[in-house]
Specification:
- In chain A, strands 1-2 form a two-stranded antiparallel sheet.
- The two termini of chain A are 36 Å apart.
- Chain A is mainly alpha-helical.
- Chain C is α/β, with parallel strands linked by helices.
- In chain C, helix 6 links the parallel strand 5 and strand 6.
- The termini of chain C are far apart.
- Classes of the chains: A mainly alpha, B mainly alpha, C alpha/beta.
- Chains A and B meet through helix 1, helix 2, strand 2, helix 3 and helix 4 of A and helix 9, helix 10, helix 18, helix 19 and helix 20 of B.
């Protein structure tokens, strides 16, 4: 996915002039990438919605709204591209800076957690997730990390299960499930 | 004054020590449950219904109404403090609410939200008492074409949500509409953009989208050391100052009007009210330039509106027996289980119960206020937790919240994906608020357009021959073109000065 | 500071656990596991008769099963969204759904709807009610009786708008049936969210004729807000003794919505037996029957097996009428 690519090229917050220029360049790349993605998306949706049927005996069919929106999206993306081209000289700084390592760690850990949750069960996967964030990333003491991770995994699991009758996923591995995990 | 006598009789019922106790317990439990991730008013009330089954009808409904208020306010607490909306109706509150938290003004935001909810709820209840019948008829005059015009009016507020660039705001809005198209087409039943995935037939879950877009992307943007470290408020900052109160008054008034009016319309949801109230603040508030960076109006307007909406929605329930929103439907379920059929016959057959319930709405509002203002300090103490630890806990909350929407890991992935999208959009300086606005309004607009055209058999002039419809469309047009006009005429400084809502 | 956080966290966990302490315990493996709720999916918006019936049945079912039963509304596309969710759910007995025909019968038959389920995707558990259709107009309407209405529509096709609860739902079929037998072609307006939005549009005088079920209008008749021109049943409805039937006025049109409960196919046998008998008890519970009567719904229990047969029969009928509603498909 090109969103991710563009994002990965991001440099960390610059301190000096050269880095600032580099950051501006990467911002420009990100912007150009996004504009290309939007135009491509609009073409794809327009083609798809033609297949859904634009107009029926009583006005718009299922494909009408997506089609109009796709056209609008394409035009807006082009307008945006034109604006950036014109305004290149006094380009305003990006809205927010990103710490790539931090964002990647958070996103990566979430993806791993979500992928593992159905298999290992809520309690084990969230325990590991919390330990990762508390002990390794935040550098808290073992005692605090353990207590909080247990509360967030085992505590929440049983609290939700018994207090609210909301079932969080148990482990799909029979042995673990047998142990109440 | 028959009404007054009936209401006083109802108040006497509602104020009995026993019923007061139930209202109090309900409010407290509701708030606690509402703070939990993924549990909004609908789920909260549904979870706690069993507690009320053995009570007598009046007490049971009083307790449920209190639970309902409580869960709604609980959702606001997480929106303001943790930037994680507990429910759809308070999603928009995160923008200014969390910005206020970052400035150390979380207490002010929560107190104003409680005050606004109280005023909105009370005024709407007064409306219910004084003019239920004519108001119910008024709501009915909103047919499909008028509903469509209302949605167009709502979307026209998008221009008010634009930051530096109108183009970017529109891109955001169009993206929201496109996301709302995913799933089974609500009219003909054809699957759209599901990419063959059965998970997507039901559409992309709104709550997962907003948790990811607002909550997760905020955490992603914040640098590791926590530049976005929220400041726990000092004692003095807990209560709103005179300036805050003065600024909140017009926002609360607008929120009450918008929420109550939309609550009367069958089929309208509370999140539409809070979004439009926020849009109205961005457009009409005297301090509109500050909105998005922690203006009290951005909390007062939407929070007032969603409470006023909730109570306004009782008008169609009591006058017509039509539950106008999902939460009201849960309440209606409770009515049915108690052997009461909501509708005009309720007043004829069980007048004491009906008035007891209405009176308890007043009482519930008061209890919400007296319970939560002192508790604000307890809630805000959450912010004393060091930011990295808090982040880990919030992430867990988000995962649980996303998972419990459909009990599926799929929604967790949706949340993560939208967190990434939120991050990219923030980097590109594309505002997020328009996306959320159109995501909510899109399906309603499409459905009402198609219903309208069936009504007129494909004749588009149906929108121009109905007076209410025309008025709404003209207002929408005026709102949409006004920035353009004023720029052309040089009346006002261009919108460039307006702050970006997410900055 | 750290200690304080830890204490808070532990306190939260204990509080949560304490909340449900009295509900805990229960043998694992046996269905239903105590404390694990059964979700009852209703495919229409709250307020419709399906929804009301489900909410009346739920508490009794709860008692019979010994666990919570939560009603979940998933409206849209004339029921298809909810039915999709039901058939996609794990067949473990923790998800059941209210099924109403003809909507559930029709949606998989029309390929253009792209339904992911067929009749075989459902396991019928029991039928609860048979709710006749009717046609009504506002009290001040120029059409004083059914004949006047039908003649007017015949003379000028599509001149009168009529509500349905979605494309190819019972109301839509009823309209097609009327057209086939009398030649009067109404202009259907599809309120795909269900009867409550159709009623709101009718009461607001946005649509001229209301086509729906007896239960929808029982209260409205009492308030004088609708004039029922004809009920599509062989005999007059006990709830609307003053409303004439179609047959009385010389039109051989009959139609009703059948509502029951189903599980996703593939349910283990022991769970099916438990669910069926709990449903039977809940549906035939005198208090439930009385409450249903208040809502204008006559209880007509059919076992899972009989409901299944009824469903199959209806599928045959619907297949024949399908071309009619596909013509008017919007």
């Amino acid at each position: 996915m090109s969103h991710e690519q563009a994002f990965a090229e991001q440099a960390p917050a610059p301190d000096d002039q050269a880095a600032a220029a580099a950051a501006r360049a990467s911002d420009a790349r990100l912007r150009a990438g996004a504009q290309v993605v939007l135009v491509a998306l609009s073409c794809y949706i327009a083609v798809e919605s033609l297949g859904l049927g634009l107009w029926t005996s009583f006005g718009p069919g299922p494909g009408f709204f997506p089609f109009v929106l796709a056209i609008a999206l394409g035009l807006l993306a082009l307008a945006w591209a034109a604006q950036t081209r014109r305004a290149r000289a006094d380009e305003d700084g990006p809205a927010e800076r990103t710490d790539v390592g931090h964002a990647a760690a958070v996103l990566g850990s979430l993806v791993v957690l979500a992928a593992a949750m159905d298999l290992a069960g809520y309690q084990i996967s969230v325990f590991v997730f919390l330990m990762f964030h508390l002990k390794w990333r935040a550098g808290r003491s073992w005692a605090l990390s353990l207590v909080l991770s247990l509360a967030g995994s085992v505590g929440i699991y049983h609290g939700f299960d018994q207090g609210l009758m909301v079932q969080l996923p148990p482990s799909a591995i029979p042995l673990l499930a047998g142990w109440g995990l | 004054m028959d009404v007054l006598a009936d209401l006083l009789g109802g108040l006497a019922t509602a104020l009995s020590p026993q019923n007061l106790l139930y209202a109090f317990i309900g409010c407290l439990l509701g708030t606690l449950i509402g703070v939990l991730p993924g549990i909004g008013p609908v789920a909260g009330v549904a979870l706690l219904i069993p507690l009320t089954l053995n009570l007598d009808p009046t007490s049971a409904i009083i307790m449920l109404a209190a639970i309902f208020y409580g869960t709604q306010y609980g959702g606001t607490i997480t929106s303001v403090l943790l930037n994680t909306p507990g429910e759809a109706a308070s999603a928009i509150t995160t923008i200014d609410g969390y910005a206020m938290t970052k400035q150390g003004r979380a207490g002010v935001a929560l107190t104003i939200a409680a005050l606004g909810s109280f005023v909105g709820g009370t005024v709407a209840t007064v409306g219910l008492v004084v003019a239920a019948k004519p108001l119910g008829d008024l709501g009915l005059r909103i047919g499909p074409p008028e509903f469509f015009a209302l949605m167009v009016l709502g979307i026209s507020l998008l221009v008010a949500l634009a930051g530096r660039s109108m183009t970017k705001a529109l891109i955001s809005g169009v993206l929201g509409l496109l996301i709302s198209m995913v799933g089974i087409d609500p009219v003909a039943g054809a699957p759209r953009f599901t990419f063959g995935s059965e998970r997507l037939l039901d559409g992309i879950s709104f709550v997962a989208v907003i948790i990811g877009l607002f909550g997760l992307s905020e955490i992603l943007v914040a640098a590791r050391g926590g530049t976005a470290q929220a400041v726990a408020p000092g004692l003095r900052a807990l209560l709103p100052g005179r300036a805050d109160l003065r600024r909140s008054v017009p926002a609360i008034a607008r929120g009450t009007g918008i929420g109550f009016a939309l609550g009367l319309v069958p089929g309208m949801t509370g999140s539409v009210s809070s979004l439009l109230a926020y849009g109205a603040e961005r457009r009409f508030s005297r301090h509109r330039a500050e909105l998005g960076s922690g203006a009290v109006e951005g909390v007062a307007g939407p929070e007032t509106a969603n409470n006023a909406h909730a109570n306004g929605a009782l008008v169609p329930l009591f006058t017509l027996g039509i539950p106008a929103s999902p939460t009201i439907a849960v309440l209606m379920g409770a009515f049915l289980q108690q052997g009461l059929t909501p509708g005009p016959t309720l007043f004829a057959e069980h007048a004491d119960v009906a008035w007891g319930i209405i009176a308890s709405l007043f009482v519930g509002n008061v209890i919400l206020l007296v319970l939560n203002v002192p508790l604000v300090r307890v809630w805000t103490s959450i912010l004393r937790i060091p930011y990295p630890v808090l982040t880990a806990l919030i992430l867990t909350f988000m995962v649980v919240g996303a998972y419990t929407i459909n009990f599926s890991v799929f929604d967790v992935f949706v949340m993560v994906a939208f967190g990434l999208l939120g991050l990219v959009l923030r980097r590109l300086d594309i505002p997020l608020a328009p996306l959320v606005l159109t995501l909510v309004l899109g399906p309603l607009m499409e459905r009402s357009l198609r219903e309208s055209l069936e009504l007129s058999q494909g004749d588009l002039t149906v929108f121009l021959t109905r007076p209410i419809c025309v008025v709404l469309l003209v207002i929408a047009l005026a709102i949409a073109v006004s920035p353009l006009l004023s720029r052309l005429l040089g009346l006002r400084k261009p919108a460039v000065l307006a702050e970006d809502p997410e900055a | 500071m750290k200690v304080k956080i830890a204490v808070t966290a532990v306190a939260v966990a204990t509080a949560l656990a304490a909340c449900g302490a009295q509900q805990s315990g229960g043998a694992a493996g046996a269905w239903p596991r105590k404390g694990k709720p059964v979700t009852l999916i209703v495919s229409f918006a709250p307020g419709a008769a399906v929804d009301a019936a489900a909410r009346v049945v739920a508490p009794v079912l709860e008692k019979e099963l010994g666990t919570n039963v939560e009603v979940l509304n998933k409206p849209g596309a004339g029921g298809q969204i909810g039915y999709t969710a039901l058939t996609k759910a794990k067949p473990d007995g923790y998800t059941i759904g209210a099924t109403g025909s003809p909507s559930v019968v029709v949606s998989p038959l029309d390929p253009s709807r792209g339904a992911t389920y067929t009749r075989q995707s459902f396991l019928p558990l029991g039928m609860q009610v048979l709710d006749p259709m009717l046609v009504g107009v506002a009290p001040g309407s120029p059409y004083k009786d059914l004949k006047a209405l039908i003649e007017a529509v015949k003379a000028k096709p599509k001149s009168v708008t009529a509500t349905t609860t979605g494309v190819q739902t019972g109301e839509h079929f009823a309209l097609a049936d009327i057209q086939q037998k009398t030649g009067a072609e109404f202009a259907p307006v599809h309120f795909s969210e269900g009867a409550s939005s159709a009623i709101a549009a009718f009461l607001g005088k946005h649509v001229e004729a209301y086509v729906g079920n007896v239960s929808d209008v029982k209260d409205l008749v009492a308030q004088g807000k609708i004039q029922v021109l004809g009920v599509m049943s062989a005999e007059r409805s006990p709830f609307l003794p003053d409303a004439p039937t179609f047959a009385e006025q010389g039109y051989q049109v009959e139609g009703a919505t059948a509502r029951g409960y189903s599980a996703p196919a593939g349910l283990p046998d022991e769970v099916r037996v438990k669910l069926e008998s709990a449903l039977k008890k809940a549906i035939e519970d005198p208090a439930v029957v009385a409450k249903m009567k208040d809502l204008g719904l006559a209880t007509a229990y059919k076992s899972g097996q009989d409901y299944s047969t009824y469903w199959a029969d209806q599928e045959t009928t619907v297949k024949q009428a399908l071309p009619l509603v596909r013509n008017t498909k919007s």
